[in-house]
TrEMBL record, chain A:
InterPro entries, A to Z: RNase_K
Family indicated by similarity: Belongs to the RNase K family.
Membrane topology: Multi-pass membrane protein
Source species, domain of life: Eukaryota
Subcellular location: Membrane
Segments passing through the bilayer: 12-32, 71-90
The protein, known as: Uncharacterized protein
Sample GO molecular function, one term: RNA endonuclease activity
This protein's record includes keyword Transmembrane: yes
Species this protein is from: Henosepilachna vigintioctopunctata
Principal location: membrane
Automatic annotation (TrEMBL), chain B:
Lineage, highest ranks first: Eukaryota, Metazoa, Ecdysozoa, Arthropoda, Hexapoda
Organism, as annotated: Henosepilachna vigintioctopunctata
Name of the molecule in the record: V-type proton ATPase subunit a
Membrane topology type: Multi-pass membrane protein
Keyword Transmembrane: yes
One family name in Pfam for this protein: V_ATPase_I
Family of this protein: Belongs to the V-ATPase 116 kDa subunit family.
Major localization class: membrane
Stretches assigned to coiled coil: 51-135
Keywords carried by this UniProt record: Coiled coil, Hydrogen ion transport, Ion transport, Membrane, Transmembrane, Transmembrane helix, Transport
Location in the cell: Membrane
Length: 98, 830
């Protein structure tokens, strides 16, 4: 049962493949604590009273959280990919049968 | 010599064809597509040419085929595209083709006419059926009404008919006014739309019935009905008659339906049969037409036995053309072989650069500026490398490069199915035509993105950063500012550079832009100077090829000296600065430290203005010993080049002319009559040879000579300054691209990443889609186009102005392939 047209489903497929690859890799990089991505972890303020150990712990927690979030988004894109591919297939079949 | 570097050598040929063999020979040449025919009767009207009749017959056949195609399309029958390319049929086959098309067209027209008549009939009957059905109600009311007023007046008469629904209000008003309210109109809508037989549109109509009294009113009502294009139908008064009539109408409608169905079937069969062959026929007819068009360009021999043609031919392909002509002769069964004769001509031949699918996109870019003069150096082989490279300098991002590459790779891999689709979308065709160009641009962008260490504005730490944090205490962290400035003089830098490209840590540094600007600006100037010097060098090949020895001495040499003594020297200073100076905090190397490193730009400006650069105390004023002396020498040399370029060539030409005149006078006085004859004989070819640059100026006056040279000199001298500055666009666009992608990341994707918590994953899912759309539309498409345009400008203006004339005209061979692709438009036909 095609819901979206052929163009939209192709767009969905391309976007989801891109999303899966990029977000999956970003998740891996976050998991290993890549410095290049440090600017994007949730704000951790270093106040006067904080101990260095706590600070590091917070930063590490932010990294792991972001890694999981990236993977969640990647999984959602996997779902989108499956949906779009099914739509694409359905569109192809309906256009062939006509 | 490779044909890619210069256009192919051409020659003008005269071709004698026997009248009987001419058609077959031209057909073979059309398949070959390597010959450009010249119009030998330009003064002759199109209608006075020899084969005007044949062309007219082809036009007629084309019209019939178009009609057939339209009919086929109307019935949604797929047209079979077998992709085969039938040969041009023999002239005698033309009659068969004509007969076939004539038969088909007549058959179709007849079927259509019949169908239309049937449909009209059908429409009338349905309308009548509706009238009979709808008016029943009115009549019932009428009789009821009549029963009450039976004594009042004699019976009312009526007319019934059908009218377009939108005309009803006007119709009603008109009736009221014209008959002063003495008529009674009733109307009812027909629910189902009816098909108009002539246009095929679906129209809504209404049934009406008008009651009135007397003949006068009757004529008036009928006139009004006529005026409103209402169709009136006879409607019997008695209910039994009406019922009978309705029955009759019903049966007739049923009959008509079967007949209509049969007519449609017949039409469908005819069209399906035609659809199988129509592509083939179109190709055949177009080929015949093209051949006769070409034959119209030929001259008739006095004896009427043979046709004479003149054509431009690539010298290398003469053999192929001879073979094609022989094939043509054999096919026509003629015994006399055609004669191909090379001719001398004073005209400049057309420029023919043979291309393949890879080089054609680059050649198109060059030709868009101007088609190269005959045998001039063709810039496109160099453009294949420099164009994507300069593009990539501005479009340096690994991620965007990957997107570009994947898109182009998809087009290249799916080349055949995509080309077979023959899309009409202009933008798509531009992208598809340049698929190899985009592919190479994508590869180069990936490379420069890797060097800039930019991946969607983030850096990749492939080899491990060569920066480190040392002696960082808790106290240090507390006073640390938001962004850290990297200072290579401290021991944060390990002292060895990152193996390839920029160190990934620069992406996070506070002084990233300052560092990158200095690097990218210098790189753009260095690339620009190399590019321009290369352009000047190519002009040397042109001068040597066209044997313009004076130009080498009076134009090429001073140009190279001027450019390299000023601007190449500046580049060399950049390298000296890079090699000699380094950031340090030691007192011993203070002279080589950051404070003492001279600004190259200021040093260069001071060199031109003949000033001493101010130096800080404790620094050396010179980068290397003898710098000031050398700079003075270089500057003086460069300045001397200006009058050299300006005056040397015109003076040389003037002197040459004077000597010639002198020589002429001497010979004239020595041998009077003979010398004149001799001179006249020789002067003709020399004038003819003067098609190229320098020789063409021989005829112009001295003033013109100086003015042209002054313009060229001023253009070159000012150009080298402004063009060098123009290459700074490489830096500017690259900076803009990097900043834009960073802003997009920080303003969009970063918002999704910084959410925290488990909802962040879903937010990231949505925001990523948004970010990727913006990346494609703004960063890849828009920025890509802008970088493309700037690259194009750098090639057209900065590079090609150094050597390229571009005053030629393109070789347009007579080829069936181009004629068929261009929808049958023959170049000679407007």
């Amino acid at each position: 049962m095609p819901v979206c047209g052929p163009k939209l489903s192709i767009c969905g497929i391309v976007l989801s493949i891109w999303g899966i690859i990029q977000l999956g890799l970003m998740g891996v990089f976050y998991y290993f604590g890549a410095v290049a991505l440090a600017e994007d972890i949730p704000e951790v303020s270093f106040e006067h009273g904080t101990k260095l150990k706590d600070f590091y712990a917070k930063v590490d927690a932010g990294y792991t959280q972001n890694a999981y979030n990236c993977w969640i988004a990647a999984l959602l894109y996997l779902a989108t990919l499956v949906f779009s591919a099914q739509q694409f297939w359905a569109n192809n079949r309906s256009s062939l049968s006509v | 010599m490779g044909s890619l570097f210069r256009s192919a050598e051409m020659t003008l040929c005269q071709l004698f064809l026997q009248s009987e063999a001419a058609y077959a020979c031209v057909s073979e040449l059309g398949e070959l597509g390597l010959v450009q025919f010249r119009d030998l009767n330009p003064d002759v009207n199109v209608f006075q040419r020899k084969f005007v009749n044949e062309v007219r017959r082809c036009d007629e056949m084309e019209r019939k085929l178009r009609y057939l195609e339209n009919e086929i399309k109307k019935d949604n029958i797929p047209i079979a595209d077998t992709g085969e390319n039938p040969e041009a049929p023999q002239p005698r086959e033309m009659i068969d083709l004509e007969a076939t098309f004539e038969k088909l067209e007549n058959e179709l027209r007849e079927v259509n006419q019949n169908a239309e008549a049937l449909k009209r009939n059908y429409l009338e009957l349905t309308e009548l059926k509706q009238i009979l059905r709808k008016t029943q109600v009115f009549f019932d009311e009428h009789y009821f009404f009549k029963a009450e007023t039976v004594n009042y007046r004699t019976t009312l008469s009526f007319v019934a008919g059908v009218i377009l629904r939108e005309r009803i209000p006007a119709f009603e008003r008109m009736l009221w006014r014209a008959c002063r309210g003495n008529v009674f109109l009733r109307q009812a809508e027909i629910e189902t739309p009816l098909e108009d037989p002539s246009t095929g549109d679906r129209v809504y109509k209404s049934v009406f019935i008008i009651f009135f009294q007397g003949d006068q009113l009757k004529t008036r009502v009928k006139k009004i009905c006529e005026g409103f294009r209402a169709t009136l139908y006879p409607c019997p008064e008695a209910p039994t008659d009406r019922r009978e009539m309705a029955m009759g109408v019903m049966t007739r409608i049923e009959d008509l339906k079967t007949v209509l169905g049969q007519t449609q079937d017949h039409r469908h069969r005819v069209l399906v049969a035609a659809a199988k062959n129509i592509k083939n026929w179109v190709i055949k007819v177009r080929k015949i037409k093209a051949i006769y068009h070409t034959l119209n360009l030929f001259n008739l021999d006095v004896t009427q036995k043979c046709l004479i043609a003149e054509c431009w031919v690539p010298v290398l392909d003469l053999e192929n053309i001879q073979l094609a002509l022989r094939r043509g002769t054999e096919r026509s069964g003629s015994s006399v072989p055609p004669i191909l004769n090379r001719m001398d001509t004073p005209e400049d031949p057309p420029t023919y650069n043979s291309t393949n699918k890879f080089t054609s996109a680059f050649q198109v870019l060059i030709d868009a500026y101007g088609v190269a003069s005959y045998r001039e150096m063709n810039p496109s082989p160099y453009t294949i490398i420099t164009f994507p490279f300069l593009f990539a300098v501005m479009f340096g991002d690994l991620g965007h490069g990957i997107i570009l590459t994947l898109f182009a790779a998809w087009m290249v891999i799916k080349e055949k199915p995509l080309a077979a689709k023959k899309s009409d979308n202009e933008i798509w065709n531009i992208f598809f035509g340049g698929r190899y160009l985009i592919l190479v641009m994508g590869f180069f962008s990936m490379y420069t993105g890797f060097i800039y260490n930019d991946f969607f504005s983030k850096s990749l730490n492939v080899f491990g950063s060569h920066w480190q944090t040392v002696n960082l205490t808790t106290e240090n962290i507390k006073i640390l500012p938001g962004s850290v400035m990297l200072d290579p003089a401290t021991n944060n830098y390990t002292g060895t550079p990152y193996p390839i490209g920029l160190d990934p840590v620069w992406q996070l540094a506070g002084n990233k832009i300052i560092f990158q600007n200095s690097f990218k600006m210098k790189i753009s100037i260095i690339l620009g100077i190399i590019h321009m010097l290369f352009g000047v060098t190519i002009s040397l090949f042109n001068m040597r090829y066209f044997n313009e020895k004076s130009d080498i001495l009076y134009e090429f040499v001073p140009r190279v000296i001027f450019l390299s003594f000023l601007f190449l020297y500046m580049c060399i200073m950049m390298f000296i600065k890079w090699f000699k100076y380094y950031a340090n905090n030691t007192a011993k190397d203070y002279v080589l430290g950051t404070r003492c490193a001279p600004s190259i730009l200021i040093t260069f400006i001071d060199m031109v203005l003949q000033k001493d650069s101010p130096v800080e105390p404790g620094c050396e004023p010179e980068m290397y010993p003898g710098q000031m002396v050398l700079q003075k020498f270089l500057f003086v040399c460069a300045i001397l080049c200006v009058p050299w370029m300006l005056l040397a060539k015109p003076i040389f030409i003037m002197r040459e002319r004077k000597q010639k005149e002198l020589h002429h006078q001497i010979t004239n006085t020595l041998e009077n009559g003979d010398a004149e004859a001799f001179h006249n004989n020789t002067s003709a070819p020399t004038v003819q040879h003067g098609g190229h640059g320098g020789h063409g100026e021989e005829d112009s006056g001295t003033g013109d000579l100086f003015i042209t040279q002054a313009i060229h000199t001023i253009e070159y001298v000012l150009g080298s300054v402004s063009h060098t500055a123009s290459y700074l666009r490489l830096w500017a666009l690259s900076l803009a691209h990097a900043q834009l992608s960073e802003v997009l990341w920080n303003m969009v994707l970063s918002k999704g990443l910084g959410m925290g918590g488990w909802t962040g994953g879903i937010a990231l899912y949505i925001i990523f889609a948004f970010w990727s759309c913006l990346t494609i539309s703004i960063l890849v498409l828009m920025e890509g186009l802008s970088a493309f345009l700037h690259t194009l400008r750098l090639h057209w203006v900065e590079f090609q102005s150094k050597f390229y004339k571009g005053t030629g005209y393109a070789f347009q061979p007579f080829a069936f392939e181009t004629i068929l692709e261009g929808g049958g438009a023959y170049p000679g036909e407007d």
